[in-house]
Design goal:
The complex is a heterodimer. Chain A is of the alpha/beta class. Chain A has two domains: 2-128 and 258-326, D-Maltodextrin-Binding Protein, domain 2 (3-Layer(aba) Sandwich), CATH 3.40.190.10; 130-256 and 328-354, Periplasmic binding protein-like II (D-Maltodextrin-Binding Protein, domain 2), CATH 3.40.190. Helix content of chain A is 41%, strand content 17%. In chain A, strands 1, 2, 3, 4, 5, 6, 7, 8 and 9 form a nine-stranded mixed sheet that branches. In chain A, strand 1 (22-26), helix 2 and strand 2 form a beta-alpha-beta unit. The longest helix of chain A is centred in the last third of the chain and has 20 residues, at 335-354. Chain B is flat and about 95 Å long. The chains are: A alpha/beta, B mainly alpha.
Chain lengths: 355, 418
């Protein structure tokens, strides 16, 4: 018996040692790489703490499952804004005190330095990203200019790529149908609005290729499987800059939001996790991230000086969702709306897909 | 005759009764056998029975609301059949107390999420109510309704009453395409019904795949069984090779082959069979699902068929032919009946695997190639585990029903897996 006990202790100690790394779960692809370069590697260099990055199509799903089953292996996760709020409400995430976050490089306290809404009860913004649509300039020399063009199969024939889910798709449909950004959520809150969004989607339904992982969107475009596709703006930027793809982003009708770092309840290395979040969301951390991929930093102090892409010459500002010239017809995702209606509208969306 | 009529008790060499000694020896052997299967038993229990039991429990149990709203639970229990359209002040008083408690214990999200499953839009209603609860003054009814008119919704009170018990059949109702309205549970609208249709579609597609698999596998298995050893082992490797390849690799190869800019389409365009503008759509739809799943599941049909065909003596067919049967009659009356156990086993295996298949339709199914398992996974990912469990339980029940039918019609003892 003693032998078994000793053996099992040794085994669990070994398992513990293997788990001592800070595990960060993000979205993979160009985004995961950017976060690895901007956060994970500098964090290892600064603190010497082994840190690893793991990928997921949407970290909200495994995080919830891990906490519910009591087997949490992730310390820090990158979640969409509405998911960070929803899971926080459900008690899946650790609260993070805004006062404990480092002040900006210029000394501004974190609470004033972060943009409004960028720090919530359980999450801290790592960047502001956007759902945009993009096309291949070799296919359309006179490309689409407005969100209405995305739904115009006569003027711009060809397949459309769309993210498989209700979020950002229904909003896009309404804006494509001529609804001003300011009225989208009020309309989507009514049954008529939802019907109108689905009716608009019906007009392109048989031309749609649905994608799920963020890296699929630029791939579909590169393969010529679609003529244009919705995507996370950073993925298109990365494909254009790093691989020289002839992709053009259409900012009209963009739907942007904060991406949040959160710490799941019961994270194995809670203290290190918090340290990592503080490190990553500092003025310098957010700047480093914006140098890697075209997502905007959520701290004012990070934008004081001009941010250059990692190639050392491309100015990032015009490529960020928050650039004034890109904000002409832009919609901020409504977190309260999606917290309430995510289940209902996704169910409806699935029913619509299967019909 | 003075000897006793009964024969003397048989004893072993050391004088113990033989019967007793035999029983001891057998018991020891049985214990040892049990010890040998114990790991398997524990494995099955741990990885199969407990999770399924847990899943079934999950489908009827959810304490998200009942655990965080004790006052309201008690009130509902004491006042069955109250007027949903006009709940009395006491109900609202209990609700406000519970809301204040939720705010304190940070359970608003959990309670709201539970009600949100049947009454969409309630999470922020609960959050708003909980934030304001401790400052509300009686009469609570007016105060709460002034805060948000939704608090007087008939549907909401119906939903809260149903959720005030830990055990519920609501998830099965949702899974049967029913919807909570002001009038109670009714059939969902045309645009919202999905689950029963998908169940039906899943079984239909699985049946189609089973039939295609059978048609493709039968000649291959026959060839495997009758070819000389050297050739048949080569063929066997060809059958098994894809079986050993990762499922993901096989599925993505189909994508590479069949997609619009894929190999097959390029070939057809190059040969001028189809014009470039109207390439065939063979992927991201039902065709893609059926093709890829048939390929993935084919070995499960070939192997049981082969194992049965291998032992059918060729002399039976020869005898039939020599007695004047045509080749068709020989096949139909002599060969086919003998392969039935293999056909039955293969079909059952392929059908049941196809019904629960998830990854292939998810990758190549696009919009209309989705099956019920994709919806189950969807609800797992959207963290409505109870609905996922209810759907899974319905799937399990329908498979058990089919298994029972199969047993009645064909007989499970005729199953031969190899």
């Amino acid at each position: 018996m003693k032998k078994i006990l000793a053996l099992s202790t040794a085994l669990s100690a070994a398992a513990f040692a293997a788990q001592a790394d800070v595990t960060v779960m993000s979205w993979g692809g160009a985004y995961g790489e950017a976060q690895t370069e901007a956060f994970v590697k500098p964090f290892i260099a600064a603190t010497g703490k082994p840190t690893v990055m793991v990928d997921s199509d949407n970290p909200a799903t495994p995080i919830k499952a891990m906490v519910e089953s009591g087997n949490v292996t992730v310390d820090v996760a990158s979640l969409e804004y509405a998911d960070a709020i929803r899971l926080c409400d459900e008690g899946v995430l650790e609260p993070i005190d805004i006062a404990s976050l480092p002040a900006g490089a210029d000394g501004t306290p974190a609470a004033d330095d972060f943009l409004a809404g960028a720090v919530t009860e359980c999450g801290v913004s790592t960047d502001i990203w956007s759902n945009i649509f993009a096309y291949d300039t070799t296919k359309f020399p006179e490309g689409p200019k407005t969100v209405a063009d995305f739904f115009d199969l006569e003027k711009f024939p060809g397949k459309r790529g769309l993210r498989k889910g209700a979020k950002a798709v229904l909003e896009l449909a309404l804006m494509g149908d001529g609804v001003p950004a300011s009225e989208v959520y009020a309309l989507l809150d009514t049954p008529e609005g939802v019907d109108r969004a689905f009716a608009k989607l019906d007009t392109i339904k048989d031309q749609v290729v649905w994608w799920e992982a963020g890296s699929q969107a630029p791939q579909l475009l590169a393969d010529g499987e679609v003529a244009m596709t919705t995507a996370y703006n950073g993925r298109i930027f990365a494909a254009a800059m790093n691989e020289g793809k002839p992709f053009q982003i259409v900012w009209d009708g963009q739907i942007y939001e904060n991406e949040m770092f959160v710490i799941p309840k019961g994270a194995p290395n809670m203290a290190d996790a918090l340290e990592f979040v503080k490190f990553a969301t500092s003025t310098e951390g957010l700047r480093a991230s914006a140098q890697q991929i075209s997502y905007g930093p959520a701290r004012k102090s990070s934008m004081k000086e001009e941010i250059l892409f990692k190639d050392g010459k491309t100015v990032m500002a015009p490529h960020l969702p928050t650039a004034p010239e890109n904000m002409g017809n832009a919609l901020e995702t409504s977190a309260p709306f999606w917290v309430d209606h995510d289940a209902e509208l996704n169910e409806r969306f699935q029913a619509w897909l299967a019909q | 005759m003075t000897e006793a009529a009964t024969p003397a008790l048989l004893t072993t060499a050391d004088g113990r009764p033989l019967k007793e000694a035999l029983a001891t020896a057998q018991a020891r052997a049985r214990r040892r056998a049990l010890l040998l299967v114990l790991p398997l038993l524990a494995f099955v229990l741990l990885t199969f029975l407990i999770p399924i039991g847990y899943m079934l429990k999950r489908s009827v149990e959810h304490d998200g609301f009942s655990a965080s709203a004790p006052e309201l639970d008690a009130w509902f229990a004491a006042n069955p059949g109250f007027d949903y359209a006009n709940p009395p002040e006491e109900a609202y008083a209990a609700l406000v107390k519970d809301l204040a408690r939720m705010q304190e214990e940070k359970t608003t999200g959990i309670a709201g999420t539970r009600i949100n499953y049947t009454v969409p839009g309630t999470i922020s209603l609960f959050k708003g109510g909980a934030r304001a609860a401790k400052d509300l003054q009686p009469p609570y009814k007016e105060a709460l309704i002034a805060l948000d008119a939704e608090w007087s919704s008939v549907k909401l009170w119906r939903g809260m009453e149903a959720a005030s018990s830990k055990y519920t059949t609501e998830f099965y109702k949702v899974a049967a395409d029913r919807k909570l309205t002001d009038e109670g549970w009714t059939r969902g609208g045309d645009k919202e019904r999905i689950y029963l249709y998908l169940f039906f579609k899943t079984f239909l597609v699985s049946a189609l795949i089973t039939v295609i698999c059978l048609l493709l596998a039968f000649p291959v298995a026959h060839l495997l069984a009758v070819l000389p050893m050297s050739k048949s082992s080569l063929l066997m490797i060809l059958v098994l090779l894809p079986f050993w390849t990762s499922l993901l690799v096989r599925t993505t190869s189909w994508i590479a082959l069949l997609q619009e800019q894929g190999i097959l389409n390029n070939l057809l365009v190059w040969m001028g069979v189809v014009p470039d503008a109207s390439r065939l759509q063979m992927m991201y739809n039902m065709t893609g699902t059926v093709v890829a799943m048939t390929h993935v599941l084919l070995p499960f049909m070939i192997l049981p068929l082969y194992s049965v065909m291998r032992v059918i003596p060729p002399s039976y067919a020869r005898a039939a032919r020599s007695l004047g049967a045509t080749s068709w009659t020989t096949f139909r009356r002599i060969y086919l009946p003998q392969t039935l156990p293999g056909i039955a086993a293969g079909s059952l295996l392929v059908f049941i695997l196809a019904v629960g298949y998830y990854i292939t339709p998810a990758l190549v199914g696009g919009a209309d190639g989705q099956l019920i398992s994709n919806l189950i996974s969807f609800h797992m990912s959207k963290s409505n585990w109870s609905l996922a469990a209810a759907l899974a339980a319905m799937l399990l029940a329908s498979i058990l029903l089919l298994y029972w039918l199969y047993d009645r019609l064909i007989g499970i003892d005729r199953l031969k897996l190899g």
